[in-house]
């Protein structure tokens, strides 16, 4: 086996982790993944190992012989970030140092506070977050940079809010609409320009950067442009167009009931954490992909309506279109 093309994906049952795992396999990589339950899924071409990202021995054992570790695991529903996130990245770092492997981390804009939004965000923009989750994300990146001086390599790909076929744990799948339900209305949280990223495009970007990893510095950050929604309505209007074409109805666009979030926040962790991130929807937050384009030549980019339609189908909000069956003419 060529270990230079063997990767461990942590979080492969989730949206971005699963997409990266699939695209690595398609690019000829041997892919391993951890999950807590027993059993294998040989049909997907992934070598599943039983284990937990919170268990250092499990991660170290699964990473043996791997050149890349994709760290795409997060506590579900925003719960216990302060207790779980840093121990998980520390386990990944320990395994990567032992294997001299490259860690790939999907980055977020949580790292930035409002002071950074006065201009387009480049990779060296100051990270002064206002939230607990933002502070934790800053610590994660600091630990990765330190690890890059101790034998590991680190690659951070920062993108906007996710949409995609398996983006249920996202603003698109939880706040704007409800996964598994027909779209009758659209809750739009944006009050200013906002950046979105289609999961398959993010995964493709990571795979293409990994193919060039030996030419990169030991610690690198890259920003994606994705889909820039200049007025905060373009994603919602794309959902309208797709649903109107597919279902013959035009769902209404409304706002997000932030007052309800505030009332329920003391009793609901997810709503409390989503409310904390409201500031990201109130001011334009835009990243520059200039550095990424210099390295790759372009950014993988799926047209907006195509990305939205695939997302709605994957989330169970639209039925998958089936090609019409050919009608066989009767024999003479």
Automatic annotation (TrEMBL):
This is NAD(P)H-binding protein. PANTHER family: NAD(P)-BINDING DOMAIN-CONTAINING PROTEIN-RELATED (PTHR48079:SF6), PROTEIN YEEZ (PTHR48079). Pfam families: Epimerase. Residues 7-218 form the NAD-dependent epimerase/dehydratase domain. It comes from Roseateles agri. InterPro entries: Epimerase_deHydtase (IPR001509), NAD(P)-bd_dom_sf (IPR036291), NAD(P)-dependent_oxidoreduct (IPR051783). It comes from the Bacteria.
